[in-house]
Amino acid sequence: MNAVESLLRSHSHKIRVGMIAALAVAPMTLLAKTSSAQSGTRNPPQRTTPAGGSATRSMGSGTKATGNAVAIQGYCPVCVIEMKKWVKGDSQFAVQQDGKTYLFPSEERKQMFLKNPMKYTPALGGDCVVALVEMNKRVPGALQHVAMPNDRLYLFANAKAKEMFNGNSDKYVNADLALGGKCSVCRVEMKQDVNGAPQFTSVYQGMRYQFPGLEQQQMFNRNPAKYAVGK
Protein backbone atom coordinates (compact mmCIF):
# COMPACT_ATOMS: atom_id res chain seq x y z
CA MET A 1 0.00 0.00 0.00
CA ASN A 2 1.45 3.37 -0.98
CA ALA A 3 1.31 6.53 1.13
CA VAL A 4 -1.69 7.98 -0.78
CA GLU A 5 -3.82 4.83 -0.27
CA SER A 6 -2.91 4.74 3.43
CA LEU A 7 -3.98 8.38 3.85
CA LEU A 8 -7.30 7.81 2.05
CA ARG A 9 -8.14 4.74 4.16
CA SER A 10 -7.35 6.63 7.37
CA HIS A 11 -9.55 9.55 6.31
CA SER A 12 -12.41 7.19 5.33
CA HIS A 13 -12.22 5.46 8.71
CA LYS A 14 -12.53 8.82 10.55
CA ILE A 15 -15.64 9.74 8.52
CA ARG A 16 -17.33 6.40 9.33
CA VAL A 17 -16.60 6.81 13.05
CA GLY A 18 -18.02 10.34 12.99
CA MET A 19 -21.21 9.20 11.22
CA ILE A 20 -21.75 6.35 13.69
CA ALA A 21 -21.38 8.75 16.64
CA ALA A 22 -23.83 11.20 15.06
CA LEU A 23 -26.39 8.47 14.41
CA ALA A 24 -26.12 7.31 18.01
CA VAL A 25 -26.80 10.79 19.35
CA ALA A 26 -29.56 11.73 16.89
CA PRO A 27 -32.30 9.38 18.24
CA MET A 28 -31.73 10.61 21.80
CA THR A 29 -32.03 14.22 20.66
CA LEU A 30 -35.21 13.47 18.68
CA LEU A 31 -36.70 11.56 21.63
CA ALA A 32 -36.06 14.46 23.97
CA LYS A 33 -37.70 16.90 21.56
CA THR A 34 -40.69 14.62 20.96
CA SER A 35 -41.21 14.02 24.67
CA SER A 36 -41.19 17.75 25.32
CA ALA A 37 -43.65 18.46 22.51
CA GLN A 38 -46.10 15.73 23.52
CA SER A 39 -46.06 16.29 27.28
CA GLY A 40 -48.77 18.96 27.25
CA THR A 41 -48.35 19.56 30.98
CA ARG A 42 -47.74 22.90 32.56
CA ASN A 43 -47.24 24.29 35.99
CA PRO A 44 -50.34 25.50 37.82
CA PRO A 45 -50.81 29.29 37.73
CA GLN A 46 -49.27 31.01 40.70
CA ARG A 47 -51.36 33.02 43.16
CA THR A 48 -50.74 36.70 42.55
CA THR A 49 -53.29 38.33 44.84
CA PRO A 50 -52.31 39.26 48.41
CA ALA A 51 -53.08 36.73 51.14
CA GLY A 52 -56.52 37.40 52.53
CA GLY A 53 -57.54 39.40 49.48
CA SER A 54 -60.14 38.55 46.89
CA ALA A 55 -59.15 36.10 44.18
CA THR A 56 -60.91 38.39 41.71
CA ARG A 57 -59.56 41.89 41.13
CA SER A 58 -60.61 44.62 38.72
CA MET A 59 -57.66 46.28 37.02
CA GLY A 60 -59.46 49.56 36.43
CA SER A 61 -60.14 51.54 33.28
CA GLY A 62 -57.10 52.15 31.12
CA THR A 63 -54.91 49.63 32.97
CA LYS A 64 -52.90 47.39 30.72
CA ALA A 65 -53.24 43.64 31.25
CA THR A 66 -49.74 42.58 32.30
CA GLY A 67 -48.11 39.98 34.51
CA ASN A 68 -50.74 37.23 34.30
CA ALA A 69 -51.54 35.00 31.36
CA VAL A 70 -54.49 36.22 29.30
CA ALA A 71 -57.33 33.71 29.67
CA ILE A 72 -59.06 32.06 26.68
CA GLN A 73 -56.90 34.02 24.25
CA GLY A 74 -58.52 37.31 25.20
CA TYR A 75 -62.10 36.37 24.39
CA CYS A 76 -64.88 37.58 26.68
CA PRO A 77 -66.22 34.70 28.84
CA VAL A 78 -69.45 36.61 29.54
CA CYS A 79 -70.17 36.90 25.81
CA VAL A 80 -69.51 33.18 25.37
CA ILE A 81 -71.91 32.14 28.13
CA GLU A 82 -74.65 34.75 27.69
CA MET A 83 -74.61 35.30 23.92
CA LYS A 84 -72.93 32.10 22.68
CA LYS A 85 -70.56 34.34 20.74
CA TRP A 86 -66.78 34.64 20.76
CA VAL A 87 -66.07 38.35 21.18
CA LYS A 88 -62.58 39.72 21.76
CA GLY A 89 -62.06 41.71 24.93
CA ASP A 90 -60.11 44.92 25.44
CA SER A 91 -57.22 45.36 27.88
CA GLN A 92 -58.88 48.50 29.29
CA PHE A 93 -61.63 46.24 30.68
CA ALA A 94 -59.53 43.65 32.47
CA VAL A 95 -60.03 41.54 35.59
CA GLN A 96 -57.51 39.32 37.35
CA GLN A 97 -58.96 36.03 38.53
CA ASP A 98 -56.97 33.10 39.98
CA GLY A 99 -53.70 34.10 38.36
CA LYS A 100 -55.16 34.91 34.94
CA THR A 101 -56.36 38.05 33.21
CA TYR A 102 -59.82 38.10 31.64
CA LEU A 103 -60.66 40.74 29.05
CA PHE A 104 -64.07 42.21 28.20
CA PRO A 105 -65.34 44.40 25.36
CA SER A 106 -67.16 46.79 27.70
CA GLU A 107 -67.54 47.90 31.30
CA GLU A 108 -70.96 46.28 31.40
CA ARG A 109 -69.58 42.83 30.57
CA LYS A 110 -66.75 43.34 33.04
CA GLN A 111 -69.19 44.15 35.86
CA MET A 112 -71.26 41.07 35.01
CA PHE A 113 -68.15 38.95 35.48
CA LEU A 114 -67.24 40.66 38.76
CA LYS A 115 -70.70 39.99 40.19
CA ASN A 116 -70.42 36.26 39.56
CA PRO A 117 -66.96 35.13 38.44
CA MET A 118 -67.73 31.47 39.21
CA LYS A 119 -70.41 31.49 36.51
CA TYR A 120 -68.07 32.70 33.78
CA THR A 121 -64.66 31.27 34.69
CA PRO A 122 -63.87 28.20 32.53
CA ALA A 123 -63.80 24.86 34.33
CA LEU A 124 -60.34 23.99 35.64
CA GLY A 125 -59.16 27.44 34.59
CA GLY A 126 -59.35 26.41 30.93
CA ASP A 127 -57.41 23.16 31.28
CA CYS A 128 -58.80 19.86 29.99
CA VAL A 129 -60.87 18.02 32.63
CA VAL A 130 -60.61 14.74 30.67
CA ALA A 131 -56.80 14.85 30.82
CA LEU A 132 -56.97 15.49 34.55
CA VAL A 133 -59.25 12.51 35.18
CA GLU A 134 -57.61 10.06 32.80
CA MET A 135 -53.93 11.01 33.13
CA ASN A 136 -53.80 13.17 36.28
CA LYS A 137 -52.19 15.89 34.16
CA ARG A 138 -52.97 19.55 33.65
CA VAL A 139 -53.19 19.97 29.88
CA PRO A 140 -54.31 23.29 28.35
CA GLY A 141 -57.63 23.21 26.52
CA ALA A 142 -58.10 24.61 23.03
CA LEU A 143 -60.76 27.00 21.78
CA GLN A 144 -61.38 24.67 18.84
CA HIS A 145 -62.72 22.03 21.25
CA VAL A 146 -65.27 23.37 23.72
CA ALA A 147 -68.54 22.37 25.35
CA MET A 148 -70.99 24.29 27.52
CA PRO A 149 -73.21 21.90 29.49
CA ASN A 150 -75.45 23.84 31.88
CA ASP A 151 -73.87 27.06 30.57
CA ARG A 152 -70.43 26.29 31.98
CA LEU A 153 -67.46 26.55 29.66
CA TYR A 154 -65.19 23.51 29.25
CA LEU A 155 -62.11 23.45 27.03
CA PHE A 156 -60.52 20.21 25.81
CA ALA A 157 -57.05 19.33 24.61
CA ASN A 158 -58.30 17.72 21.40
CA ALA A 159 -61.36 16.33 19.61
CA LYS A 160 -60.95 12.90 21.24
CA ALA A 161 -61.09 14.38 24.73
CA LYS A 162 -64.22 16.32 23.83
CA GLU A 163 -65.79 13.13 22.46
CA MET A 164 -65.01 11.31 25.71
CA PHE A 165 -66.57 14.14 27.72
CA ASN A 166 -69.73 14.18 25.62
CA GLY A 167 -70.02 10.41 25.92
CA ASN A 168 -69.84 10.42 29.72
CA SER A 169 -70.02 13.97 31.04
CA ASP A 170 -70.93 12.85 34.58
CA LYS A 171 -67.45 11.38 34.90
CA TYR A 172 -65.71 14.65 34.11
CA VAL A 173 -68.05 17.55 34.84
CA ASN A 174 -66.85 17.99 38.43
CA ALA A 175 -63.21 17.08 37.90
CA ASP A 176 -62.26 20.53 39.17
CA LEU A 177 -64.16 20.11 42.47
CA ALA A 178 -61.50 19.52 45.11
CA LEU A 179 -62.09 16.62 47.53
CA GLY A 180 -65.47 15.96 45.97
CA GLY A 181 -66.86 19.07 47.68
CA LYS A 182 -65.50 18.27 51.15
CA CYS A 183 -64.01 21.14 53.15
CA SER A 184 -60.22 21.12 52.93
CA VAL A 185 -59.92 23.44 55.94
CA CYS A 186 -61.93 21.05 58.12
CA ARG A 187 -59.79 18.17 56.96
CA VAL A 188 -56.53 19.93 57.86
CA GLU A 189 -57.60 21.65 61.07
CA MET A 190 -60.06 19.11 62.54
CA LYS A 191 -59.11 15.90 60.70
CA GLN A 192 -62.77 15.58 59.69
CA ASP A 193 -64.60 15.27 56.37
CA VAL A 194 -67.28 17.96 56.29
CA ASN A 195 -69.40 18.72 53.24
CA GLY A 196 -68.99 22.17 51.75
CA ALA A 197 -71.73 24.32 50.23
CA PRO A 198 -71.77 25.86 46.72
CA GLN A 199 -72.45 29.36 48.13
CA PHE A 200 -69.05 29.20 49.90
CA THR A 201 -66.76 28.42 46.98
CA SER A 202 -63.24 29.66 46.26
CA VAL A 203 -61.07 28.89 43.24
CA TYR A 204 -57.36 28.23 43.55
CA GLN A 205 -55.17 27.09 40.65
CA GLY A 206 -58.28 26.18 38.68
CA MET A 207 -59.76 23.94 41.38
CA ARG A 208 -63.03 24.72 43.18
CA TYR A 209 -62.97 24.48 46.97
CA GLN A 210 -66.22 24.43 48.94
CA PHE A 211 -66.71 25.15 52.63
CA PRO A 212 -69.55 24.76 55.14
CA GLY A 213 -69.41 28.42 56.10
CA LEU A 214 -67.79 31.81 55.62
CA GLU A 215 -65.26 31.29 58.43
CA GLN A 216 -63.66 28.29 56.75
CA GLN A 217 -63.71 30.01 53.37
CA GLN A 218 -61.91 33.04 54.78
CA MET A 219 -59.30 30.82 56.41
CA PHE A 220 -58.68 29.21 53.04
CA ASN A 221 -58.49 32.54 51.22
CA ARG A 222 -55.86 33.80 53.67
CA ASN A 223 -53.57 30.83 53.04
CA PRO A 224 -54.79 28.64 50.16
CA ALA A 225 -51.47 26.85 49.74
CA LYS A 226 -51.87 25.38 53.22
CA TYR A 227 -55.19 23.74 52.38
CA ALA A 228 -54.88 23.01 48.68
CA VAL A 229 -55.06 19.39 47.52
CA GLY A 230 -51.91 17.78 46.20
CA LYS A 231 -49.60 20.16 48.04
Can you characterise this structure?
This protein has 231 residues and is an alpha+beta fold. It has 10 helices and 8 strands. The chain has helices at residues 3-39, 77-83, 107-115, 117-120, 129-135, 159-167, 169-172, 184-190, 214-222, 224-227; strands at residues 56-58, 69-70, 90-97, 100-104, 142-147, 154-156, 197-204, 207-211. A 4-stranded mixed sheet has the order 1-3-4-2. β5 and β6 (154-156) form a beta hairpin. The longest helix has 37 residues, at 3-39. The radius of gyration is 25 Å and the shape is globular. Residues 1-8, 10-54 and 61-66 have low confidence and may be disordered.
Give the topology.
Layout: H1 3-39, E1 56-58, E2 69-70, H2 77-83, E3 90-97, E4 100-104, H3 107-115, H4 117-120, H5 129-135, E5 142-147, E6 154-156, H6 159-167, H7 169-172, H8 184-190, E7 197-204, E8 207-211, H9 214-222, H10 224-227
Parallel strand pairs: 2-4
Antiparallel strand pairs: 1-3, 3-4, 5-6, 7-8
